[in-house]
Design goal:
Blueprint (H helix, E strand, L loop, with lengths): L1 H7 L24 H9 L3 H5 L3 E2 L10 H11 L12 H20 L7 E6 L2 H11 L8 E5 L4 H4 L1 H7 L4 E4 L1 E2 L4 E2 L1 H8 L5 E6 L12 H8 L3 E5 L18 E5 L1 H4 L6 E6 H5 L11 E5 L4 E4 L17 H13 L1 H21 L9 E4 L11 E5 L9 H10 L2 E2 L1 E3 L4 H7 L4 H7 L9 H8 L6 E4 L7 H15 L16
Parallel strand pairs: 1-15, 3-4, 3-7, 7-8, 8-9
Antiparallel strand pairs: 2-10, 5-6, 9-10, 11-12, 13-14, 14-17, 16-17
């Protein structure tokens, strides 16, 4: 372990020794680290009590103890009921849900006269609401995607294909896995119009794609869907400055509790242009069973299928109040500092022979990126270590990171430089495999994915240093014995 400190200029910690907490003060980029040390000692103290290093904030933020207590106090203080009636319990729920809608709009700096909020179970459901109801057409409404997209957005193409609409893809450019602004502009200025979808921040590499593309797309006649799920935990979004037609978000990624609440934040004019393929309880104003006709309710009710989670949705207000008290700018600066420390430490990690210990995908610095870092561990020959081995060793050490392909095949295909011809061939019936591992063998991949490390609001400097020390102690000089690894089930 002493060599680890020498190779990356870090502080070592004996296995099992307690971590020394950040003492407060001003961080490398002017952040008040005392704020986050206090958060760690209060809302996230259970991480140290259970001896965990949690580095999967892009998957979900840990639950702050204060929010859990607030939820318990609210639910134990009075009765709340299904909001689709006029009883006292129902009215109480309705009032809190409407308050939460306005709180989301205030968080996103959106004019309530122009935008509304549809509460969903998660980001995927929010995307599907748009995808299934958008008027795709083979002549008048196409779909444009960037190669960097979560599968929840990639899936929109199936609705476009069903309508025989054209589906365009803007590919990556360069070795940082960024999408070319010039290529986006060319695609937007082409003959076709329709729906343009892209992520504000990549869930694979942390790359932040320009928010200015929204105004450019709208000026060219496109509707826009912005995936803000990975961006909002550390980034500010103003819909007055970035006037997207549709924005999708998942609130547990921002403040950790509760899970199971997302949002489709939609421009009222754009929402009125959607045509839902079905109706459900709560979405209709009136319906006839025998005559088989119905009239949809006014938005947002027309898009909230069935009973909303009237216990969880009001907690969005409490969570956003908590998050704003910490400060979005402070969180962003804190995570930027931790990400920079992580990237510098990863770059310095070496095997005893001098070979790099890791390969990072995407930006190597903090410019134009958020706090999501994708990497593979390399062995002494420079070969990729199976990500399942890394996952196993991390779990044994009490470290939570993400492993796999992160539901972003476009970024994974580019990171592993898979030829398009090989991808097309592997997708044919003749080359079909029965398992994920079978596809990996057909594609000749060294592993089934990567390791994603994403620091966030709950982390302190010692978490980054502890993870770097773990990588060196575990993988430098020799790769742990492979052993029996569970088969990969999904990607």
């Amino acid at each position: 372990m002493a060599d680890a400190a020498g190779r990356r200029g870090g502080r070592t910690r004996a296995a099992g020794a307690p971590r020394v907490r950040d003492g407060g003060g001003v961080g490398e980029n002017g952040t008040d680290e005392g704020v986050f040390a206090r958060l760690r000692a209060t809302d996230f103290a259970y991480l140290d009590e259970t001896r965990q290093i949690y580095l999967d904030h892009t998957g979900a933020a840990p639950a702050p103890r204060g929010l859990v207590r607030a939820q318990a106090a609210r639910l134990s203080g009075r009765a709340f009921g299904n909001p689709h009636t006029e009883s006292p319990a129902s009215t109480a729920s309705t009032e809190l849900i409407e308050e939460a809608r306005l709180r989301v709009l205030r968080f996103l700096d959106a004019d309530p006269a122009e935008y509304t909020v549809v509460f969903t179970a998660n980001t995927s459901q929010a995307v599907k609401l748009v995808a299934e109801a958008y008027p795709f057409h083979r002549r008048s409404a196409s779909l444009l995607l960037t190669q960097d997209n979560h599968n929840s957005v990639n899936g929109v193409r199936e609705f476009a294909r069903a309508a025989h609409a054209k589906v365009g893809l803007v590919p990556f450019t360069g070795d940082e896995l960024r999408v070319s602004g010039a290529a986006v502009r060319r695609a937007l200025d082409g003959r076709r119009r329709g729906l343009f979808c892209y992520p504000a921040q990549s869930n694979f590499t942390g790359v932040r794609h320009p928010l200015e593309w929204i105004a450019r797309a709208r000026a060219a006649g496109w509707h826009t869907l912005l995936d803000a799920a990975a961006y909002l935990p550390t980034g500010k979004l103003s819909l007055r400055r970035t006037p997207a037609d549709f924005v999708v978000a998942s609130w547990y990624k921002v403040f950790g509790y509760p899970s199971g609440v997302g949002s489709l934040v939609a421009r009222r004019e754009a929402l009125a242009g959607l045509r839902r393929p079905w109706f459900a309880g709560g979405t209709i104003q009136v319906v006839s069973a025998r005559a088989r006709w119905h009239r949809m309710a006014q938005a947002p009710a027309a898009f909230e299928d069935g009973t909303p989670d009237f216990h969880a949705v009001p907690q969005v207000t409490t969570g956003l109040d908590w998050y704003d008290e910490v400060g979005a700018e402070a969180v962003g600066a804190h995570v930027n500092r931790l990400t920079g420390r992580l990237l510098r430490g990863l770059a310095e990690l070496r095997h005893p022979g001098g070979r790099p210990l890791v390969r990072v995908y995407g930006p190597r610095g903090t410019a134009g990126r958020g706090g999501t870092v994708a990497l593979n561990v390399l062995d002494t020959r420079g070969k990729v270590v199976d990500e399942r081995i890394v996952a196993r060793e991390c779990a044994a050490a009490g470290i939570s990171v993400r492993t796999g392909c992160f539901c972003n095949p476009g970024a994974g295909e580019e990171a592993f430089t898979i030829a398009p011809r090989l991808l097309r061939r592997t997708g044919t019936e003749r080359w079909r495999a029965e398992t994920i591992d079978g596809y990996i063998r057909r594609l000749g991949l060294p592993s089934g994915g990567a390791v994603r490390v994403s620091p966030g609001i709950a982390n302190i400097t010692e978490d980054i240093d502890g993870f770097l020390d773990f990588l060196y102690a575990t993988f430098a000089a020799a790769t742990p014995v492979r052993g029996d690894l569970a088969p990969r089930l999904t990607c």
